[in-house]
UniProtKB/TrEMBL annotation:
Belongs to the YccS/YhfK family. Keywords: Cell membrane, Membrane, Transmembrane, Transmembrane helix. The chain crosses the membrane at residues 32-59, 71-91, 97-117, 124-145, 151-173, 388-410, 416-434, 441-460, 472-492. It is found in: Cell membrane. This is FUSC family protein.
Length: 579
């Protein structure tokens, strides 16, 4: 009993830790909530069906900066337009043949889910597959071809309208990439100051390292693409990205408590000064750092490295450019590894099973079962079990909020504004959780999705508890079918992915000593890549415990991998101090 209580207490502490505010989290959350609220108002005003799906799309497209969000929104509009043009003749040919409709759903789902798993299309593949399957599943209920064609146009609006809102909102209220980048670089320096002042834990430092520098490099790419800053400012931020991460690496290799108090305070003050200048986009002020003791003037000592990083940052020194990242649209083994085809087949099979079930029972109210299969498509068995728990927890909480809204709020609503307030608050909660760590992220979107399904039926506030219950039954059915499909058919152990990330980290570590001596910028990028691989491996080590016995490695093997991970993390933290 005591062990169980301790376990639940540790889970509770972890959840509270994951829900804590982080830089940029509130800014993203309220923007997602506002756009979802606007989408609900537009859907009810113009009669766009399934506003829950439209809001779901917003969650996946909205990113930390408006550059990436806008590009994804434009891509989805183009993709949806192409799909609708293909579907118009397809619907006309299959409208009187249910078997052909099912075949069309299966083929389109397989292709798009495969692309989503094996390419950069990612979640957009599942979203488009969802729209196609949903529209084609309704074709059999519409005996007139002209009406079916109109339904296709509404399907385009389900994807196009929220993306239009994302583009318009980002134009006026979006967080521009350079502002987000400056805030993130400033946060690194402020964390460095906290570490030097002995107010930050080793875990906080590791979490910052685990984020790597790739997101910031992506923001730099958007800045260049949209010409948001002059060329010299772009170069300054590119160097700041390297030097701020370099400072974190130096702090990971040293023990700040062993430094002289005045020296620690001077370094911390320098970090705060540079953070303020970076965040405001001002010219860097000169640093007044004490000279190093003679014993630390030579070699790659952590303190030397930290001072050099801060000095380079203040002076705008060029430490070189990291090597180009060769990244193709498809993953490296997209056509060789059968796991991607199997993933698409399993997801498609789960969706078709749900479609056949509710069609055979003539229970259209649980059509959300098929929708859930596209929302919940995952990779390994460990991921499936973990995300299943998050989705069910999120679904139950979202459904509870929806039922409470129907029972207590809807009877007192006199305008769409009253409903908009409730939608905003629940969307804010869902987006806050969704923008958190991967351990809890999926619960956030399920909270919002379940609430939308329950509270938003038709083109106004829902007043039917039966219809709301049917939708939740559908969500739970879809989750159950997905769980059974992914755990019984071609179950995928997460150990393969774990081994891949550990090997990549080991390979990167082996190259670091030479890089630090010859190409510092490349060494920073390589260190960040190693940290990201180790962070992913850490998450996979946790998920491995959720897999069934026949997929889980022996306890000895699990301990060996855990030890290997710990050894590589120590090497990363100290590798750049070795000549």
């Amino acid at each position: 009993m005591t062990t169980a209580r301790a376990s639940w207490a540790s889970v509770g502490r972890a959840v509270l830790q994951d829900l804590r505010p982080t830089p940029g989290r509130l800014a993203l959350s309220w923007r997602v909530a506002v756009i979802c609220t606007l989408m609900v108002i537009v859907a009810m005003t113009y009669g766009i069906p399934e506003s829950a799906v439209s809001c779901f799309v917003i969650f996946f497209v909205m990113k930390t900066d408006c550059g990436e969000s806008s590009v994804l929104a434009l891509a989805l509009i183009v993709l949806a337009s192409v799909v609708v043009m293909v579907l118009v003749p397809l619907v006309q040919y299959t409208i009187t043949y249910p078997v052909l409709q099912m075949l069309a759903i299966a083929v389109c789902s397989f292709v798009l889910l495969f692309l989503g798993a094996a390419s950069k299309l990612g979640p957009l593949g599942g979203i488009i597959a969802l729209v196609i399957a949903f529209v084609l599943s309704l074709v059999g209920q519409v005996p007139i071809g002209e009406i079916a064609t109109r339904a296709l146009l509404y399907a385009w609006l389900m994807a196009g309208a929220p993306m239009g809102l994302v583009l318009l909102f980002n134009l006026f209220f979006g967080l521009y990439p350079h502002k987000v980048l400056r805030r993130e670089l400033g946060a690194r320096l402020r964390l460095s100051a906290e570490v030097l002042n002995l107010n930050a834990s080793e875990q906080q430092l590791w979490e910052a390292l685990a984020q790597g520098i790739a997101p910031q490099q992506t923001r730099l790419a958007w800045i260049r693409l949209f010409h948001l800053l002059p060329g010299h400012e772009q170069k300054r931020l590119a160097q700041a990205n390297l030097n701020t991460y370099r400072a974190l690496l130096a702090l990971a290799a040293m023990q700040p408590e062993a430094l002289d108090t005045l020296q620690r305070q001077a370094l911390a003050q320098a970090c705060l000064q540079l953070a303020e200048d970076l965040e405001r986009g001002k010219a860097m002020r000169d640093l007044q750092l004490a000279p190093l003791p003679p014993a630390q003037e030579t070699g790659f000592q952590p303190l030397t490295e930290l001072q050099q990083a801060l000095t380079s940052l203040a002076q705008g020194s060029d430490i070189g450019q990291p090597g180009p990242v060769h990244d193709s649209f498809f993953v490296a083994d997209a056509w060789r590894n059968p796991i991607y085809q199997q993933h698409a087949l399993k997801s498609t099979a789960a969706a078709m099973i749900c479609y056949i079930l509710y069609s055979a029972m003539d229970w259209q109210g649980i059509h959300t079962a098929m929708i859930t299969c596209y929302v919940a498509a995952l990779g390994s068995t460990g991921e499936t079990v973990h995300k299943l728990a998050l989705r069910i927890a999120g679904c139950l909480l979202g459904a509870l909020l929806g039922f409470l809204t129907i029972i207590y709020a809807v009877p007192h609503m006199v305008s769409v504004g009253s409903l908009a307030i409730v939608v905003f608050l629940v969307s804010l909660l869902g987006s806050w959780v969704f923008s958190g760590p991967e351990r809890i992220s999926y619960a956030g979107i399920q909270i919002a999705f379940a609430f939308y399904l329950v509270a938003l039926q038709g083109f106004g506030p829902s007043i039917s508890l039966d219809a709301a219950w049917d939708r939740i039954v559908g969500v739970l059915l879809g989750n159950t079918v997905m769980y059974l499909t992914f755990t019984l058919i071609w179950p995928v152990s997460i150990t393969g992915s774990l081994r891949k990330h550990l090997d990549s980290a080991a390979q990167g570590l082996a190259q670091l000593p030479g890089l630090w001596n010859q190409r510092k910028a490349q060494a920073v990028q390589q260190s960040a890549s190693v940290a990201q691989n180790l962070a992913t491996a850490e998450y996979e080590l946790e998920l491995m415990l959720l897999e069934p016995d026949h997929l889980r490695p022996s306890s000895e093997q699990a301990l060996a991998w855990k030890q290997e991970w710990q050894d590589m993390r120590k090497k990363l933290e100290h590798r750049h101090t070795q000549a």
